[in-house]
Design goal:
Helix content of chain B: 55-70%
Low-confidence stretches of chain B: 1-14
Low-confidence stretches of chain A: 1-9, 108-113
Number of domains of chain B: 1
Largest interface: A-B, 48 and 50 residues
Number of helices of chain B: 3
Number of helices of chain A: 3
Shape of chain B: elongated
Shape of chain A: elongated
Oligomer: heterodimer
Radius of gyration of chain A: 19 Å
Structural class of chain B: mainly alpha
Largest sheet of chain A: none
Helix content of chain A: over 70%
Number of strands of chain B: 0
Strand content of chain B: under 5%
Distance between the termini of chain B: 65 Å
Chain lengths: ~110, ~130
């Protein structure tokens, strides 16, 4: 299943009409946005490793998943896309809960050197 | 630009898939907007956690860090959820050719950060003066 729009194979001259050339760039921009989001998750995971190694490791694994999901840009139906974006929101909410717990209980549980 | 990326018939899928498939570029742009807000929310959560955990306590105000950090984490949580809801609303509007709903996030973010900033300034002043 290859969408008729947005495919600009590498090494091929872009179409004369920008209307047809641009979806490829939009796809690329979107993939880069996913990559940045994955990096943000990875940074968060690395920071959490210091406090909660298990949670941090989980977020690091999730950042790899997010990066992988970004490679699927434009190939999915609306329902699949919705599920992918929901994963990010659910993860962020879960991380916020962990962050809240840590910020109140952290100093008592974790010694900061 | 009436192509149907994804190859799924909109008529046979769930209610959120009704309407017609919009131009792929609009779907991509909507997706990127959501991702940008997601990164903003992650930064807020990380910032709040760092303030609560890594910042040395305000002299004389031991709870000061939590007064700044907790709202930041909650704000990040809210931004994440609202950005998803707005992505969904925008996608629905795109599928039906309706005008895009106006995003409430800039206003929410500006007001919340202003309030948190004022609280942080007050705490810094209080601890410098040594009031409590």
């Amino acid at each position: 299943m290859s969408p008729p729009t947005g495919k600009t194979p590498a090494g091929e001259e872009p179409a004369d009409d920008i209307e047809y050339a641009d979806p490829g760039l939009a796809r690329e921009r979107t993939e880069l946005a996913w990559t940045r989001t994955a990096i943000a998750f990875a940074a968060l995971g690395a920071a959490l490793l210091k406090f909660r190694p298990v949670v941090g490791l989980l977020v690091l694994v999730l950042s790899a998943v997010v990066w992988r999901l970004g490679r699927l840009s434009g190939t999915a139906s609306t329902a699949d896309l919705r599920a992918r974006l929901l994963l990010i929101t659910v993860t962020t909410v879960a991380v916020s809960v962990v962050a809240l717990v840590l910020s109140f209980l952290g100093p008592g549980i974790v010694s900061l050197r | 630009m009436t192509d149907q990326p994804g190859g799924r018939d909109p008529a046979t899928t769930s209610t959120d898939d009704d309407g017609t498939e919009p131009d792929a570029r609009y779907t991509f742009a909507n997706e990127r907007t959501f991702l940008a807000w997601s990164r903003t929310s992650l930064a807020l959560v990380v910032g709040g956690l760092a303030i609560a955990q890594l910042l040395p306590p305000f002299p004389g105000i031991p709870w000061g860090r939590h007064v700044i950090g907790t709202p930041l984490i909650l704000l990040g949580c809210a931004v994440s959820v609202i950005s998803y809801l707005e992505w969904k609303a925008s996608q629905r509007a795109l599928r039906h050719g309706q005008p895009l709903p106006r995003s409430r996030l800039p206003q929410i973010l500006a007001i919340a950060i202003t309030v948190i900033g004022l609280i942080a300034a007050a705490l810094a002043l209080l601890s410098a003066v040594g009031v409590p």
